[in-house]
Design brief:
InterPro entries: MCP_dom_sf, MCP_transmembrane, SLC25A46. The chain is mainly alpha-helical and about 270 residues long. It has a two-stranded antiparallel sheet with strand order 1-2. Helix 5 packs antiparallel against helix 6 and helix 5 packs antiparallel against helix 7. It has helices at about 1-10, 15-35, 50-80, 90-100, 115-155, 160-185, 185-195, 225-235, 245-270; strands spanning about 205, 215. It folds into 2 domains: about 1-105, no CATH class; about 115-270, no CATH class. The longest helix has about 40 residues, at about 115-155.
């Protein structure tokens, strides 16, 4: 991060941020439209059954399929080196995504995998991430609420503590769910990113040095070939390249949560 900031400026650390928001918007919009015009439920009720769960996961799968071309374009914009990248507009992600679907736009190499080959790994990663995060979120939230209830029964709590107990369990549960799902699925995410970027003539930064660029020259034929190639040529650690950034990300996230809790409790105590 220091090398990038020194050679390319702080903007390089925020590249692709706009397209990331666009992908989130496309995902939410697609999910809303699909659930509106189909019987697939957007939310699962407390009295759920296997059919309802299956229909809900089918909705999620269709949503990931619709958003996949834009996710691919956003990923390329995020990893493309600032040294060789032209100034692109905020809607370039939409243009590239549509171009990827209809086969027009920026020329790609013959190594580019068709979108049909990317459907399974993309949907698999998205659905597994959703399932793992949902289970962990509900589990952590249940434990925290039970702990809070027991503490309330054991001793009377102040209004300040009651306010904290009302809001912070949700934040902690979301944090734990996101952390666990990202850590568990990191190897699959590595494979997914390599498949999406292959053949797009993307030039990435050399993260070991910070001032060189590297072309993407992989020749993966699909998800299985990508997994086998990484295992043979790079070993199991090849699936965890860049994992240190995830550790830093969630360390900062935890610090922000703790600081927010301290500030919030201080403000509430002063107002009492």
């Amino acid at each position: 991060m220091y090398s990038f900031n020194k050679t390319q400026g702080p903007r390089a650390l925020w590249k692709g941020m706009g397209s990331t928001f666009i992908v989130q918007g496309v995902t939410l919009g697609a999910e809303g439209l699909i659930s509106e015009f189909t019987p697939l439920p957007r939310e699962v009720s407390h009295k759920w059954n296997p059919k309802q769960i299956g229909e809900h996961l089918l909705l999620k799968s269709l949503t990931y399929m619709v958003a996949m071309p834009f996710y691919s374009a956003s990923l390329i914009e995020t990893v493309q080196s600032e040294i060789i990248r032209d100034n692109t507009g905020i809607l370039e992600c939409v243009k590239e995504g549509i171009g990827r679907v209809i086969g027009m736009g920026v020329p790609h190499s013959k190594r580019l995998l068709p979108l049909f080959s990317l459907i399974f790994p993309t949907v698999l990663h998205g659905v597994l991430h959703y399932i793992i995060s949902s289970i962990i979120q509900k589990f952590v939230l249940l434990i925290l609420k039970r702990k809070t209830y027991n503490s309330h029964v054991a001793e009377s709590t102040s209004p300040v503590q009651s306010m904290l107990d009302a809001y912070f369990p949700e934040l902690i549960a979301n944090f734990a769910a996101s952390l666990c799902s990202d850590v568990i699925l990191y190897p699959l995410e590595t494979v997914l990113h390599r498949l999406h970027i292959q053949g797009t003539r993307t030039i990435i930064d050399n993260t070991d040095l910070g001032y060189e660029v590297l072309p993407i020259n992989t020749q993966y034929e699909g998800m299985r070939d990508c997994i086998n190639t990484i295992k043979q040529e790079e070993g199991m650690l090849g699936f965890y390249k860049g994992f240190g950034a995830v550790i830093i990300q969630y360390t900062l996230h935890a610090a922000v949560l703790q600081i927010t809790k301290i500030i919030y409790s201080t403000l509430l105590q002063n107002s009492v």
